[in-house]
Design goal:
The protein is α+β, with helices and mostly antiparallel strands. The protein is built from four helices and ten strands, in the order H-E-E-E-E-E-H-H-E-E-E-E-H-E. The chain is elongated. The chain starts with a helix and ends with a strand.
Amino acid sequence: MIINRITIFFVTLMVLSCDSSDDIRTYRLPKIETTNLTHTVMESEIHPTKFIWEKPVSWIPTKGSSMRLASFGIPYSGGSGDLSVIQLNGNGGGIESNVNRWRRQLHLESESLIEIEKNILIRKGMLGRYNYLKIINQQLDSAFLCAIIPNENQTIFVKLSLKPNGIIEIEDDFITFCSSINISN
C-alpha cells in the first residue's frame, strides 16, 4: 500500500515537472569577482611569536589538527593537496627522524642521513636558509613536498601531500610560500 502511494507521488511529480513547450530558457548568474592578486598575507599567532606568510589566493584555509599552525587545501588540476605547517621546539627531532617518518607514511624504506642529504635542496627564505625536499612513491601515486625551516630555538615543518603529477604545477607556489614565512614585528 505504501509502495503504491510512493509510486503515484513520484509519477505525479514527474508529470507536473515536465514542460511540453519548445521555449528556450536562459538564466543569468552573478559573476564572482576575482582579484589580480596572486598571494595574500596571512598571520598566525603562536605565543609568544607571530608568524606571517604569503599564500596563493587559490589556497583554501582548512581546519587541521591542534598541532598545526595552519592548514590549507591546495587545488590543482589533478585534485587537491593538503598542506600543514607545524612548529616544534629545538630541531624537532632532527632531519633524519622527520624525513624517515614521512618516508614511512608513504610506505618507503628509511634512509641514512647521508642518503637523505643527497636529496635535500637548500633554499633561502625570510627566516634564513632552509631544507627543501620531495618524497615520492609512484606505486602509491603519492608524494610529499617538505620544508624544514629552523628559527632560533624552534623549527617550522611544512608538508604538502599530493599526487606526484601535481608537483610541477604546485612546486613554485610551495617554495614561494615557505620562503615567505617570517616573524611579524
